[in-house]
Every structure is written in structure tokens, then in C-alpha cells.
From TrEMBL, chain A:
Lineage, uppermost ranks: Archaea, Methanobacteriati, Methanobacteriota, Stenosarchaea group, Methanomicrobia
Protein name: Preprotein translocase subunit SecD
Length: 546, 318
């Protein structure tokens, strides 16, 4: 069969063309050589962070009656449980308390008859509320006895907490506690979204955030140093609005999750401000708290405070008109009514200072509500200038490795008819790997380059196997013998390739994905090699030897 | 001593370079003049020594190899600065400095684990005072180092077991498969022992290299086994032929990786501005150790076992 009609050659040429189009090499006088290759941060400069989402998924059992008894005793002194069923608990306090005081404990409104309070309960709700209050974090009920606790809590801490209310972490069949340091896919996805939003606000477009496993996010921030990166990513925490009561004390008003939208900072009537929208629940909490703690009547004595991770980020009194509005709404809807959602503006003052503060507040407000707290597991800062040097040097290392290979191959075979196709095949494999990388849009980093060099190594090994098999006993074989030898060679090559791919696969997950680039390049490279490049070499080498 | 002949008449003839021919004929005559069992003894002794070294390290330090910062938690900063090591020691006296070293033309400072606040202030300090020095900062949390250790160990074990399964599936006979798996195991153990003895720290790069070694090591073993099991002819000749191919393979790879190691590690001696690329340097040094071990294990251990297997009178295949 003619060379140009051979199936293997056609596949090879097509693959090379696709790679060429994908890489799109070019040259212009301003930028020098250009291409569509994307480089990782260790070559282009920037910071990469690996973030751990602090959360726990655990199966929990606890006694709601004991929880209610403990919780109300903490507030009202000793309470006595009079009656309880699965849906209601009745307890008696030493003296009568108001409905507000009961609901303020956080377990819903009770029916009050004298000293007796009957609380409608739901076991999951009680457990969830209890853990949430004790650990000051969000707790999500996932069904069964399973809860997601969005906090960095250890199993012994949680066990201690539950032991106080007749509960424990459940054990699985093997007797191991059902306690995993992870978060749900939804939580991970949500955290990713919020982070993304936050990074966009900083003007960092197209930041790759890659989820790894169930509780890790990898974030690559091009052109940003580690200090800034950490600030941007880890600052968001728990956003809270509190209201000043008397002197230096304050009361909780609402959490950041009530904020549904945040506008870009803008200036109105000489003052910078950030608009934000509270959902209906948030509007109610805001209005009720303002009236209850006196902010609506005496704004200046009861400032509203915004906190991020318990640090004050903003504080201001209510505008008098807003204050009187809130009083009116309170009369209309009351404590339990359906307040309509509400837009508010936090003003930061005039001038550059006001603008700067508004921008910062904007970030805090928008992404303040990361669903979970994050810990920086590892971080890597490479300045752009160093990255350029790495790039140059990796290129030198690759070229020299290739030249050395060429030299050894020449010394072994002493024929340019073998040397040239072999080196060309090796180079084409690299080219196709790069093309593939560009096509699927992954970035070339140092581990990936090490992977490519590794592929050159196994590639040459395999080409030597093919060549020696074809040249077995030194004679150029007849077509029939040639075909059987080629298939023998490929049996060896496929076996070797399979073991390499299998051996590399654990790296896809290890190290929170830090070596994913290395693993993917090696695996893809070996596949491209055995499926595209080496068959073509096997075809060409026969013609070259004739 | 017997004469070795691999005449290659006709167009495909390739006169070997002297060095390679010498290497092959030395190995070849050694294999031909020794009994299969004798062949396996030196590599097994080396394997046992390697295991003793690793075991000894484990007993004294709690880990078979020295752990790098990624596995223990800590910070590594490299700076392109003319400041002396002493000056840098002083400058960072508030932080848990483990060492200050020259790393090519740059200075490398390693810190132990520290609190997040401390880490932040260190980062701040470096990025302001040494902004000119193109600071490279790598940090890893202590808590996660522990998790990384289990992950790395698990990756090695899983990878090795999967490889063993694939090898068994390929050959479907016990002795040859065991021989391949054993020599791959020995390659890794010897490479790891070298890491331990030379004091190289275990990094993500060295773990990757150990995994890659599994792939490389199996290449020449599969070649050898296939050639010996599936070809007709004189056993010693088949070994010689396999060796010609196998040694070429390992030598090209070895040559390429040695060059890569030299470029990644010592380029600064020629062009002072070039930095060291630690991940490529780490990967290549481990592969160099491993490939040398592989030469011995493939052509002595594996060959010895295979020859013994094929020469056993009762199990002769039809």
C-alpha cells in the first residue's frame, strides 16, 4: 500500500494538523513568537492556593428533650419538663415569661399557659439548632440522621457536645463513628460560586477554580502575589449585621445569607455608597430588631454594625427617614408578618476615602457569605520574572534531553534513516500533547513539562522496541514477516503503556490534585504515542529501511 | 570465555558504539557464565540492604525517607539576593528558620510550621522587603502534610498493585509475572533507599518519580519476558537480543534524564540568572537512581528468575 493512503499515516497527519491549528503558532515583531498555549502560574507568575473547606458530615443522635431542658435552663434558670411527645415538649419555668423571651431562645414560639410552655418540636430541627448555636455555625440537615456542620469541629469536640444532651455520633457497621471531614458537593459548588463572584469584583476575570475531592478548591490567581491572594480569598467569612443596644453591647440582627443582591458602589449627592437588598426574612429581622432595640426611635444611640468574621467593617446610624419608615412597617406587619424585601444603601462618605471604603464594603457585602470557612492548605507564589526563567530553562532542558536522545540513538544505529524518523516521531508526540492541552484548555505548568519529558523517554523506548523488532536478525523482512513482527512489537508496547498509565493514575487525585498536570500529560502522552505516533512510525520505518 | 556474535549482515546492519557493545558483552558473558540462581543473588543482596536502610530510617526517624516541607508543613522561600546567609538568618530571626542555603544563584530559606498569622506576616515581609528579589514562596499547612503522607503512601501502594494486576493479566503465568513485579518493587526500594541515604527530601516530585519508575521499570521487563517466553531459539541468544534492545532503551532514557537533571540543577553555573527547577531536579535524580537499579534488576534478577523458570526440566513448555 502506498504511504500516503495508509490509514495510520492519515490519522497521524490529521492529528498533527489539529494540533497545529490548536496551538496556532505565529510570529510578529512586537511579541516575538506567539501561540495559544496557556501556561501555569509557575511559568507565567502568580499565586496558586489550595483551599480546604472546613466542614463535617456526621450522623448524630441526641435527645431533643434534654436539649430543650438544657437550653431553656441556661436562660431561665432551672426548668422542669412536664410532658413530652415526638412533636411537643411542655416545660415549666419558675416564673412566667413573655412569648418574645421564649422565641428568643431560638427554638420557635411556645404556647404559654401560666408557667407552662408548650413547644412544638421536630427532632431534626432541635438538634440542628442546638449544634448551630453551640458551634456558632450553620448546620444543614441532610436526611436520615446526617447533618452537615459547617465548622472546623473535631469528632471528640462534637462527641463532648452531644454527650451533654444524651446524644452521640452514630457508629457504622464496623463500629467506626460516622464522622467525615468533608462537605457536600452543593456546599463545595456554592463556595466556588461565591469565591468566583468575589474574585470578579477584584477585576480578576476567568480565575480557574478547580474543585478537588469533596472539600478542596484550587484557585489560580495570575499576576497576584501571595499576600493579596490570601487577603482576597480568605477574608470572606461570616458576615453579620448587629445593632448597638446600650453602651458597648450589641445584638444580632441578621446573617449575610439574608443579603440577596449587592450593587456596585456609586455616588449619590456627593456621598459614596453601596446598595444591597435584604430578602423578606432579612427585611423582617432588620425592621423588628431596629424597633425592638430602639434604633428606629433613637438612631444615633443605636448604630447598625456590620461584622465580618467578628471584625467590624462598617458602622452607621439609621437615616432618620428610614427609621420612621421602619416604625411604620413594624406597626403594619409586626414580628411575624410577611415583610417585603427591602433595598438599603450603606453610605461611606465623600471623596477618595469614601470611594475606597465603598469598594471594600462592596466586596465584604457581596461575598461575605461564604457558606463555609476556608483554610489555606498550601500556597505557591512565583513572580512573573522567575516564571519566565523557568520557562526558558524548561525549554533548554527539553531540547538538550532530545539532543542527547538523538545522540545515543545515532551511536546505536548509525543510520540517519532510523534517527530522523525516530526523533521526528518523538517531537511530533510532544507537539500533539501540546495541541491536546490547548484544545481542552489546560495549563502547562512545570509538573506537566516534567511529564512531557517523561513521555519522550518512554516514547523513545517504544520506538527502539519497534525498530529492533523490525530489524530482528538484521534482515529487512518481507511484508508478511514485517507485519507479524510489528504486531509483536505492539504487543510489548501496549502492555508497557498499560502499566505506565495504570501506575500514573493515582496521581490524578493525590496531593489535592497538585500533580494532576503531571499525571494527565503522562497518560495523554502515552495514549497519543501508542495510538497515533508509534503506529505511524512503524509504517514509515519499513519504507525508510528499504 | 565464550565468544559473542551478533552479526547483522545486509542493510540493517548497525555497528554498535564501543561503550554500548562493551556494556552488553560484559553483561552477556556474565549472564552466560553464571547459573540463573547465582544471577539473582547480587540484586537480592542489594534489595535486602535497601530494605534494611529504609527500615533503619523508619526505626530511627519514624519515616523511611526524609520528609520535605510539603509533607511536614512549612515554608520555603527562594530569593534572588546577594544578602549573605547570616544576614538572612538575622532578617528572619522571628520565624522558625530551619536552614538558609544556596540554591543555584538564589538563596533558599526553609521554615518550620507556623501559625497562619505568622505565615501572613512572613509573606508580607518578604513581598515588601525582597520585592526586588523575585521571591518564590511555597507554603504547606502542617495538618495537611500528615494527610499528604497517607495519600502518597496510598498512591504508591495502589499504583504498584494495579501494575501487578496488569502484569499478571498480560503474562498469565505465575513465575514470569512475579519476576517482573519483584524487580519493579526492587527498583523502587533501591531508589527510595538512595533518597534516604543521600538525604534528598521527599517531595511531591519525588513521589511522582517513584510512580513513574514503576512504568519505566516494567518497560524493559516486559520486553525481556515477551522475548524469552514467546520466541523460539536458543535461550542465551534470546537474552542477548533482548539485552541489545533493552539496554538501548534504558541508556537513552538515562542519558536524557541525566541531561535534564544537569540542566535543571546546574545551569546557573553557566548562565548565572537561571534558577534551579526543583521539581524537575527531584524527579530526575530519583529516576536516575531507579534506572541504574533497573539495569541490575532486569538483567540479573529478572533474567535469572526467567532462565531458571525456563530451564526447569519438569515445567518445560511444549
Amino acid at each position: 500500500m502506498r504511504l500516503h493512503k495508509d490509514f495510520r499515516i492519515i490519522v497521524f497527519v490529521l492529528a498533527m494538523l489539529i494540533a497545529l491549528i490548536a496551538i496556532h503558532p505565529g510570529y510578529n515583531s512586537d511579541e516575538g513568537f506567539t501561540s495559544h498555549l496557556q501556561y501555569g502560574l509557575d511559568l507565567d507568575g502568580g499565586t496558586s492556593l489550595i483551599l480546604h473547606l472546613d466542614g463535617v458530615i456526621a450522623s448524630i443522635d441526641a435527645d431533643p428533650v434534654q436539649i430543650i431542658e438544657n437550653e431553656f435552663s441556661d436562660v431561665f434558670g432551672d426548668v422542669e419538663i412536664v410532658d413530652h411527645s415526638d412533636t411537643e415538649i411542655t416545660f415549666r419555668t419558675a416564673e412566667p415569661h413573655s412569648a418574645d423571651a421564649i422565641s428568643a431562645v431560638g427554638y420557635g414560639n411556645g404556647r404559654i399557659r401560666g408557667n407552662d410552655v408548650a413547644l412544638a418540636i421536630n427532632k431534626q430541627y432541635v438538634i440542628r439548632t442546638y449544634i448551630s448555636k453551640q458551634l456558632t455555625c450553620e448546620v444543614i440537615y441532610l436526611g436520615g440522621d446526617t447533618y452537615e456542620i459547617r465548622s472546623k469541629v473535631t469528632d471528640s469536640e462534637l462527641s463532648d457536645l452531644l454527650a451533654g444532651v444524651g446524644g452521640s455520633i452514630k457508629k457504622d457497621m464496623q463500629g467506626k463513628p460516622e464522622f467525615k471531614e468533608e462537605v457536600t458537593k452543593e456546599t463545595q459548588e456554592m463556595t466556588k460560586k461565591v469565591l468566583n463572584e468575589k474574585l470578579n469584583i477584584w477585576g480578576l476575570k476567568e480565575i480557574p477554580i478547580t474543585p478537588v475531592g469533596s472539600n478542596v478548591l484550587m484557585v489560580d490567581l495570575a499576576g497576584i502575589d501571595l499576600s493579596t491572594a490570601r487577603d482576597i480569598v480568605t477574608t470572606p467569612g461570616k458576615f453579620e449585621i448587629r445593632v448597638q443596644t446600650t453602651n458597648n453591647t450589641s445584638e444580632h440582627v441578621l446573617w449575610g445569607d439574608r443579603i440577596t443582591a449587592v450593587d456596585v458602589p456609586n455616588m449619590k449627592e456627593g456621598s459614596w455608597g453601596v446598595g444591597f437588598t435584604l430578602n423578606d426574612k432579612g427585611a423582617r429581622e432588620f425592621g423588628v430588631a431596629a424597633v425592638k432595640y430602639g434604633a428606629a426611635d433613637d438612631p444615633d444611640a443605636h448604630e447598625l454594625i456590620m461584622l465580618l468574621d467578628d471584625n467590624e467593617v462598617y458602622s452607621a446610624p439609621l437615616n432618620p427617614r428610614l427609621a420612621s419608615d421602619l416604625n411604620g412597617l413594624y406597626d403594619l406587619y409586626g414580628v411575624d408578618g410577611d415583610w417585603p424585601s427591602r433595598g438599603l444603601v450603606a453610605n461611606t462618605g465623600s471623596g477618595d476615602e469614601g470611594e475606597a471604603e465603598a469598594r471594600q464594603l462592596h466586596v465584604h457585602l457581596s461575598a461575605g457569605a461564604l457558606p463555609v470557612q476556608v483554610t489555606v492548605v498550601s500556597s505557591d507564589q512565583v513572580p512573573a520574572s522567575l516564571g519566565t526563567l523557568f520557562k526558558e530553562q524548561a525549554l533548554i532542558a527539553g531540547l538538550f534531553a532530545l539532543l542527547t536522545v538523538a545522540l545515543v540513538i545515532f551511536l546505536r544505529y548509525r543510520q540517519k534513516n532510523i534517527l530522523i524518523p525516530m526523533i521526528a516521531t518523538s517531537v511530533s508526540e510532544v507537539f500533539m500533547i501540546l495541541g491536546f492541552a490547548t484544545l481542552i484548555g489546560w495549563q502547562l505548568n512545570l509538573p506537566a513539562i516534567a511529564g512531557i519529558i517523561a513521555v519522550i523517554g518512554t516514547g523513545i523506548d517504544h520506538l527502539v522496541i519497534i525498530t529492533d523488532e523490525v530489524l530482528y536478525e538484521g534482515k529487512i523482512p518481507s511484508l508478511k514477516v514485517y507485519l507479524s513482527r510489528i504486531s509483536k512489537a505492539f504487543a510489548i508496547i501496549f502492555a508497557a503503556a498499560a502499566t505506565t498509565i495504570i501506575a500514573m493514575s493515582p496521581l490524578l487525585w493525590m496531593g489535592f490534585g497538585a500533580l494532576k498536570g503531571f499525571a494527565i500529560t503522562t497518560i495523554v502522552g502515552v495514549l497519543i504515542g501508542v495510538l497515533i505516533a508509534r503506529p505511524a512510525y512503524g509504517r514509515v520505518i519499513r519504507d525508510m529501511l528499504e | 570465555m565464550k565468544q559473542i556474535t551478533h552479526s547483522r549482515p545486509g542493510k540493517g546492519e548497525a555497528p554498535m558504539p564501543k561503550a554500548l557493545t562493551n556494556l552488553i558483552s560484559r553483561f552477556d558473558s556474565y549472564i552466560r557464565t553464571h547459573k540463573p540462581v547465582q544471577l539473582t543473588i547480587p540484586p537480592l543482596i542489594v534489595l535486602v540492604i535497601a530494605l534494611i536502610v529504609l527500615g533503619g530510617m523508619y526505626a530511627t526517624t519514624g519515616s523511611p525517607v526524609r520528609l520535605g516541607f510539603e509533607f511536614e508543613g512549612g515554608t520555603i522561600i527562594t530569593l534572588d539576593t546577594k544578602d549573605s546567609q547570616d544576614l538572612l538568618q538575622q532578617k528572619f530571626a522571628d520565624y522558625p528558620v530551619i536552614y538558609v542555603r544556596d540554591s543555584g544563584s538564589r538563596k533558599s530559606i526553609k521554615f518550620g510550621p507556623m501559625s497562619e498569622d505568622k505565615q501572613n506576616s512572613l509573606t508580607e515581609l518578604v513581598n515588601t522587603d525582597y520585592e526586588y528579589a523575585a521571591p518564590e514562596i511555597k507554603q504547606a499547612g502542617a495538618l495537611y502534610g500528615a494527610s499528604l503522607q497517607t495519600q502518597a503512601l496510598r498512591a504508591l501502594v495502589i499504583s504498584f498493585c494495579l501494575m501487578a494486576v496488569v502484569v499478571f493479566l498480560i503474562f498469565r503465568t505465575l513465575v514470569p509475572s512475579v519476576a517482573v513485579v519483584l524487580s519493579a518493587f526492587s527498583d523502587i526500594a533501591i531508589a527510595a533507599a538512595f533518597i534516604a541515604v543521600t538525604g534528598i527530601e521527599l517531595s511531591l516530585g519525588t513521589v511522582a518519580a517513584l510512580l513513574m519508575l514503576i512504568g519505566y521499570s516494567v518497560d524493559s521487563d516486559i520486553l525481556l519476558t515477551t522475548r524469552l517466553l514467546k520466541r523460539r531459539g536458543n535461550l542465551d541468544d534470546k537474552v542477548t537480543n533482548a539485552m541489545t534492545t533493552g539496554l538501548t532503551m534504558t541508556c537513552t532514557t538515562l542519558a536524557a534524564i541525566i541531561v535534564m537533571y544537569i540542566v535543571a540543577t546546574y545551569s546557573y553555573l553557566i548562565i548565572p540568572t537561571l534558577p534551579q527547577i526543583s521539581i524537575i531536579s527531584d524527579i530526575s535524580i530519583v529516576l536516575i537512581f531507579g534506572l541504574f537499579a533497573d539495569l541490575m534488576n532486569t538483567w540479573m534478577l529478572n533474567t535469572g528468575i526467567l532462565k531458571w523458570h525456563l530451564q526447569r526440566p519438569r515445567r518445560r513448555r511444549a
